[in-house]
Amino acid sequence: MTLIRLSRACATLLLCVGFCPTAVAHNPMCECKEIPGEQIQCTGGFSDGSGAPGVTLDVIGYDETILVPGKLGADSTLTFKKPSAEFYVLFDAGPGHVVEIDQADIPSQ
Hints:
The chain is an alpha+beta fold. It has one domain (24-105): Immunoglobulin-like. 16% of the residues lie in helices and 38% in strands. A four-stranded antiparallel β-sheet has the order 4-3-6-7, with no helix packed on it. A three-stranded antiparallel β-sheet has the order 1-2-5, with no helix packed on it. β6 (87-92) and β7 (98-102) form a beta hairpin. This is Secreted protein. Keywords: Signal.
């Protein structure tokens, strides 16, 4: 009788797995560009087209100090004064959703 219950449980489990929706991956994306006034504007989002309002975007010096702590605004952007020290931008939407942009990769105007 235990074998019959086990077989039914396995069949039910396999049936449920067959109807589970597939998870859709969305990768983090961030782009920064220099704009007039010695400023940098960064826009963050995800590959599925969704924005990233409220997501952490910090500007970090090469010595690992946070030069500009920030969060993306309602329009998924953050604008900041270009630091005089060497830096990189860290877009951090959580584990596995991190993008780093080095200052050398930010196009100037």
